[in-house]
Amino acid sequence: MKNSDLLFNFFTIVLLSITNCQFQSAADVLDNNYLRIRNNLIEQDRNNFFGAAVQLSPNEEVVNQHLIKLKKSELDFFKSNSSFLPGKNFLLVKNYISQSKVFQFIQRIPKGASLHAHLLASVDPDYVINNLTYLPNVYGCWINSKFKLKIFPDPLQTYEDAKCSKWQRLSVYRNESNQKQMDFDVFLRNQITLNESAVVQDREVVWQKFKSIFECLYDLISYRPVFKQYVYRMLQELYDDHIFYTEIRGTFMPLYDSNNGTSEDPKIFLDTFLGVIEEFKATHPKFIGLKYIYNIYRGVQKETLRSILKQVVHYKKIYPNFIAGIDFVGQEDESQKLVTFHHELLEIMPKLKFYFHAGETNQYGGTDLNLFDAIMLNSSRIGHGFGLTKHRELMTIGKCRDIAVELCPISNQVLKLVDDPRNHPGVMLLSENYPVVIGNDDPAAWGATGVSYDWYVVFLSMTWPEHGLRVLKKLAENSIVYSAMNTEERDEALKIWERQWNDFIIDQLERVDKEHGEKQKINDGCAI
Ligand SMILES: *[C@@H]1O[C@H](CO)[C@@H](O)[C@H](O)[C@H]1NC(C)=O
Ligand SMILES: *[C@@H]1O[C@H](CO)[C@@H](O)[C@H](O)[C@H]1NC(C)=O
Ligand SMILES: *[C@@H]1O[C@H](CO)[C@@H](O)[C@H](O)[C@H]1NC(C)=O
Ligand SMILES: *[C@@H]1O[C@H](CO)[C@@H](O)[C@H](O)[C@H]1NC(C)=O
Ligand SMILES: *[C@@H]1O[C@H](CO)[C@@H](O)[C@H](O)[C@H]1NC(C)=O
Ligand SMILES: *[C@@H]1O[C@H](CO)[C@@H](O)[C@H](O)[C@H]1NC(C)=O
Ligand SMILES: [Zn+2]
Questions:
Q1: Where would one find the signal peptide in this protein (predicted)?
Q2: Strand positions, DSSP E, 335-423
Q3: 97 alpha carbon to ligand 1 midpoint, in Å?
Q4: Which amino acids are annotated catalytic?
Q5: Model confidence, pTM
Q6: CA 96 to ligand 1 center in whole angstroms
């Protein structure tokens, strides 16, 4: 061993245990080794990162190098332009992101599963407007200064309602708008999505608007024939984004139809849902399934909670492979905390798995304390969970219990919790190699489809320039490993995913070769 190596090793060890003051003087002495030690420390840090330990085959390595080149050139572009795309509000830059080469690469990846999304905000608003609101029986009405949609049996009739003067067919609204030279569908779009105004509005205003989206759509989607179309389309959008399995959060919605009215029986809802999934699988054999996480409103009274839990346990027995468990929803900062329900939850713990939203907050020592309950109650995953980085001990427990965090960075940005994803606490989770998965939360509310936009934001903003395919492969693997699938389902899913992944790599290799060939031709052309 050379003298400098000895010195180097010694210094590395000392460096990790000494104070900054000593570091200064030690560095003076070791002037010659300074850069070497620095590089070593950086490398160590980079290699601790999420996914860094993933092994790549020689083929994967070729694709990896290609991806890193794309990534660096995109990062360089943003640097020279002082316009880091994912740092800008998604409502303003979605169409630019769609054009990114890195984004398009991510779209093609077999990403496995999408594990955090809400049923009523999971279908492209354009589809909802163009394909669902043009059905002849769709009516609209203002109720408590919110515009609501609903289906009535006879399009020739008008329907009175105690809460609004009358339900009017959308064709009538459309006609009225036309006469005023206005586009009713633009109005409609503003009811079911957040628009650019949200970029400059306060968080409270944005959240109010966000909540009203669900109210606008609820009755329309509860119409059984619409519900079937809606679910089918949701699966199609995920499938088109190379997702083959998903876990969706929602309630047992009372579905209605023209012949037999509204059915409060959850069995109707569950059978209808399952029917659509089977229908979709029959024509999309690569799609393997969906599980449902029953969500309960945070503002719930304890009495109601107890009866809901009883009901979910009952249906979990009848549909054991479909119902994954439960969650609480509603703005975390505004409502009751998990600790309020700890008796009820402890009691039900042996029968139901938990997938709690927790720590979707900027508070410290307030709402974020929900994370303590989520982990004490053995939540299987944590939705958002970014408050976790403020609680070191808890984060350690979460990591050793292998409780994955579901990151949804675009949701956090649009809903005004984390402005610039480069400063998202998820960076710290990733740098600690904490298990994470990525979800899209409520993509329809900001006009996203699939989960690739969130993957892109994480990949560009929350990883090093040198981190390429390993991170993405790990994210896909995690989406299966941390899903609610049972061991058998999971093993089967992993096998299917591996085949998809290998096909993807072959396909990418061909693309790289082709691009390389074309460049070669251009270069040859120039040489002449
Ligand atoms: C900066 O970005 C814009 C698009 O946002 C592009 O049109 C322009 O050419 C870029 N300028 C430079 C100097 O890269
Ligand atoms: C949705 O509507 C568009 C425009 O009317 C139409 O072209 C398309 O075929 C429809 N898609 C489905 C799945 O019904
Ligand atoms: C549109 O409204 C005008 C004026 O109220 C009416 O004459 C016309 O019949 C309406 N057209 C449709 C298609 O409802
Ligand atoms: C956004 O939607 C609201 C209605 O919710 C509307 O008043 C406003 O004009 C819209 N803003 C833009 C920029 O379209
Ligand atoms: C209700 O009516 C439809 C026909 O529109 C039928 O298919 C369905 O089985 C009926 N029953 C229930 C419980 O939905
Ligand atoms: C906690 O969750 C894990 C994984 O879901 C499970 O294996 C374990 O039995 C649970 N522990 C308790 C105390 O419920
Ligand atoms: Zn959510």
A1: 1-21
A2: 353-354, 357-358, 381-384, 404-407
A3: 14
A4: 360, 384
A5: 0.91
A6: 11
Q: How confident is the model at residue 244 (pLDDT cuts 50, 70, 90)?
A: very high
State the residue range of the domain holding 362. 85-124+224-501
Statement to judge: residues 382 and 428 lie in one domain: yes
Half-sphere exposure (Cβ direction) of 330: Cα atoms closer than 13 Å: 13
Does the residue 106 lie in any domain? yes
What separation in Å is there between the alpha carbon of 189 and the centre of ligand 3? 23
* pLDDT higher than 70, residue 524: no
Cα 170 from Cα 189, distance rounded (Å):
13
Give the residue among 67, 70, 69 at the shortest CA–CA distance from 59. 67
pLDDT at 19: 44
Instruction: Verify that 133 and 270 share a domain, yes or no.
Output: no
Ion ligand 7: residues, CB within 5 A, are 441
> Is the confidence at residue 27, as pLDDT, over 70?
no
510 in any annotated domain = no
In the predicted structure, residue 43 carries a pLDDT above the cut 60: yes
**Structural element, H or E, at residue 160:** strand 159-160
Read off the pLDDT of residues 319-341 as tens digits, 9 standing for 90 and up. 999 999 999 999 999 999 999 99
pLDDT of 14 > 50? The answer is no
- For residue 380 and ligand 6, the question of a CB distance below 6 A is answered with yes
Write the single-letter amino acid at 467: H
